[in-house]
Design a protein that fits this description.
By secondary structure, the chain is α/β, with parallel strands linked by helices. It has a single domain, classed as NAD(P)-binding Rossmann-like Domain (Rossmann fold). It has helices at about 15-30, 40-50, 60-75, 100-125, 150-175, 190-205, 210-220, 230-240, and strands at about 10, 30-35, 55, 80-85, 135-140, 180-185, 250-255. Strands 3-2-1-4-5-6-7 form a 7-stranded parallel sheet, with helices on both faces. The structure holds nicotinamide-adenine-dinucleotide. Nicotinamide-adenine-dinucleotide binds near residues 60, 87, 189 and 192.
């Protein structure tokens, strides 16, 4: 069992879905966890159930990062692990793209992750408010590694998360921050987002039904099933732990082989 006792963590988008699972798994491994989200009631419930703290944090907003990270460091006693998990997916054929949707995905997935890296590194590096180094885990997607219809812009934003991860690891190493930076590429998990995607691609006529879309994904997956919240959370706990002490600047597929 991985032991994270004595460690502190912050998970963005931690009120539901994969982020909630990551917050629960980090807490189960012994970490004190700050759950950060736009959804105050739901986020506070999750935080309370794991003996952690809730902070309101909009990842697209710089002032919100300033206040949210300070509140989290105060509430859980530091920052050793940051998971940049918050993300949005808006399904569309390329020919039907709405600029507002494109901007929304760029804002949450790319700007949000960039600001998370900025504030995480500043907080964890020597002299920062936490200052002991640590680990940042970004949540990309199998969509960054394959072509799947209906999610062109989402995939582009997740490829951006992948590249942000590599450069952040390089800068952190070169400048002596003592922070490892990695990302995960989750496969399809039937959270609100994952189930919504299956419905959307069926609606667009790309598959006969949501069930056919899921079957299509499973067929492309050597492990022969969808992912679970626990599958992704376990990988995040591993990357957060000292067992991954020499794992840096990589993307870990957690997709049953779909992206190979
Ligand atoms: N579910 C999947 O199949 C899947 C697969 C690969 C990658 N991912 C990625 O995993 C992450 C979590 O996905 P999920 O399935 O749990 O999604 P979800 O929609 O169920 O949950 C997303 C959470 O992020 C929060 N959020 C959204 N915008 C935010 C903002 N501006 N600031 C703070 N919080 C914000 C939401 O309130 C919500 O709690 C996302 O980055 C997603 O792209 C999901």
């Amino acid at each position: 069992m991985t032991d994270l006792s004595g460690r502190t963590a912050l998970v963005t988008g931690g009120a539901q879905g994969l982020g909630e699972g990551m917050a629960r798994a980090l807490a189960a491994a012994g970490a004190k966890v700050a759950v950060a989200d736009l959804q105050d009631d739901q986020g506070a419930k999750v935080a309370e159930s794991i003996g952690g703290a809730f902070v309101h944090l909009d990842v697209t907003d710089e002032a919100s990062w300033d206040a949210g990270v300070a509140a989290a460091v105060d509430a859980v006693g530091g920052l050793d692990v940051l998971v940049n998990n918050a993300g949005v997916e808006i399904t569309s054929l390329i020919t039907e793209l709405d600029p507002a949707d494109v901007k929304k995905m760029l804002e949450v997935n790319v700007l949000g992750t960039s600001l998370g890296l900025k504030h995480g590194l500043r907080t964890m590096r020597p002299g920062g408010a936490a200052g002991n180094g640590g680990v940042i885990i970004n949540v990309a997607s199998v969509a960054a590694t394959i072509a799947f219809p209906g999610i062109a812009v989402y995939s582009a934003t997740k490829s951006a998360v992948d590249r942000l991860t590599r450069v952040a690891a390089m800068e952190s190493g070169q400048l002596g921050y003592g922070v490892r930076v990695n990302c995960v590429y989750p496969g399809l998990v039937p959270t609100e987002m994952g189930a919504g995607l299956a419905n959307d691609v069926a609606q667009l006529g790309l598959f006969e039904s949501p069930e056919a879309a899921v079957a299509g994904v499973v067929e492309l997956t050597p492990s022969g099933r969808l992912g679970t919240v626990q599958d992704i959370a376990d990988a995040v706990v591993f990357l957060a732990s000292d067992q991954a002490a020499f794992v840096n600047g990589v993307g870990l597929p957690v997709d049953g082989g779909m992206g190979m």
